[in-house]
């Protein structure tokens, strides 16, 4: 069952010794350009450089409560969850294996290895990754911790909202990037259960087509899950999870903000140049939705808006404004 507010608050206490309480940043320039008071929850300063550390450490801690003698953990990930689970396993002195697509950037693979995990390459499709992950789980007797479709992981990500609303109690809305839905489900759930008047808007890269399903109120994707081409490659999974989908459908706003690659790149540049922070493309989607006034057009009455900056794991040798320009 989906986590309760009491459970989320307990999770926040449980993982506190392991994670950073990340800062909230503001920018006079961002406020002027958007016409809003904008507050950035900087999870790019989190352990392993992304919010995923919260869900990963809670995933293992919760698993150990149920099964004290687990032999190890395994997951499949294109990068950030793999790093996070490798780090969490290292903290708790457990072996860890991570299945990554064969086209994963070397910088991400090396980061996973730095935390002591074994890396196993797979074909790039989500189905292949899951199959290899299940095989490793059987062969090694390791427990699988899914990157987003896991209630313990969702509860870990939900602690971001707990902190954010302590730091800025009078927010009117929160904008959150959406990939598989673990982050957006956690934020929407914790926000609605604690302060239901605060709206949670998801922002997607063009090509995901979540907006269509949310508008319709039911699942419209057809066929198996797939990855789609976007500069925001850490949220390039088209479908949400079977656990995350009903949560966001219930608690997030039906209006989904859709941003294009060129817009995301400009938002990412703004974060580098004006906010002076390193963000990955997925992290820039929320800011981008404000700079392009997509949120303001949907809800002109908003004044105080929070943005989840989900991570900062960037390959500095392949910055998207160079890569994207070269591909045209």
Explain what the structure shows.
The chain has 328 residues and is α/β, with parallel strands linked by helices. The protein has 2 domains: 5-50 and 150-308, Rossmann fold, CATH 3.40.50; 52-144, Rossmann fold (3-Layer(aba) Sandwich). Helix content is 47%, strand content 14%. It contains 14 helices and 10 strands. The chain has helices spanning 5-15, 28-34, 52-66, 80-91, 106-114, 126-140, 151-167, 182-194, 210-216, 244-251, 261-275, 281-291, 294-298, 320-327, and strands at residues 24-25, 37-42, 73-76, 96-101, 118-122, 143-144, 173-177, 199-205, 257-259, 304-309. Strands 1-2-10-7-8-9 form a 6-stranded mixed beta sheet, sandwiched between helices. Strand 3 (73-76), helix 4 and strand 4 (96-101) form a beta-alpha-beta unit. It is globular and about 55 Å long.
Q: Indicate the low-confidence ranges by residue numbers.
A: none
Question: How many structural domains does the protein architecture include?
Answer: 2
User: Which outline best applies?
Assistant: globular
Distance between the termini: 46 Å
**Quaternary organisation of the protein chains:** single chain
Strand content: 5-15%
Strand segment count: 10
User: Class of the largest domain, according to the CATH hierarchy?
Assistant: Alpha Beta
**Could you state the order of secondary-structure elements as H and E?**
HEHEHEHEHEHEHEHEHHEHHHEH
CATH domain topology of the largest domain: Rossmann fold
Give the proportion of residues in helices.
40-55%
* Major β-sheet annotation: 6 strands, mixed
How large is the count of helical segments?
Answer: 14
Q: State the secondary-structure class.
A: alpha/beta
